[in-house]
Amino acid sequence: MISWPSSEPVLVDKALMLRPWHLDDVSAVSAICQDPAIQEFTTIPVPYTEEIAELWIRSSPQKYLEREKISLAGVRNGELVLSVSLHSIHEFDHVGEIGYWVSPSARGEGLASHAVEMLADFAFAIGFRRLTAITLPDNLASQKTLVNAGFELETVLRDRMTRRDGTQTNAVLFAKFPAIEIKG
Asked: Which domain holds residue 36?
């Protein structure tokens, strides 16, 4: 059983804080989501406007209360640098899917792997038993992020994703499981 906390979590360590979204984040989210790589490798709407960012941020608390999604802002030294979420949740099966994007100014620092690992640890602590993530085959940076966060390559899903140009392509599936406790 998943022990769903009554309020959205705040996860903090020395390098990063993952917190619920605030309306003050609208402009930063909109600006970051203009990045061509985020538009290419995620399913955000294009064009991405401040109105879309505001609707997305406003919906986050309700989706949490309905146990549909945990979506957190990644903040380093007061600056919004990433988004990480647990979505496609199937509570009965104790599974969910991780998704994320990173500001171009914060790429290459390992923050995405760190955020994914923090959210995965939280998810396992409240009762999730399997987390997955999918990437486009050519999104090698995202695949590296997942491996560094402890995910393992599981398989290639044939024709699982649609590119912006409408063509169908494979997806690469990664999975992570809670650590096994060996008693002895």
From this structure: 11-129
Both structure tokens of 73 = 């802002």
Query: What's this model's pTM, rounded to 2 decimal places?
Result: 0.94
Q: How many structural domains comprise the chain?
A: 1
**Tens-place pLDDT, residues 3-24:** 999 999 999 998 899 999 999 9
Cβ pair 26, 54 in contact under 8 A:
yes
In a domain, 6, yes or no: no
We report the CATH number of the domain holding residue 16 as 3.40.630.30
CA distance 155 to 173: 5
Q: Which amino acid is residue 43, in one-letter code?
A: T
Q: In whole angstroms, what is the distance from residue 102 CA to residue 83 CA?
A: 7
> Tokens representing 49?
């406007």
Nearest to 113 by CA among 103, 102, 104, 122: 102
In sequence order, the 6+-apart residues with CB closer than 8 A to the CB of 87 are 68, 69, 70, 71, 96, 97, 99
CB 171 within 8 A of CB 157: yes
**How many beta carbons lie within 10 A of that of residue 76, not counting itself?**
17
Extract the residue ranges of the chain whose pLDDT is less than 50.
none
Cβ contact 128:87 at 8 Å: no
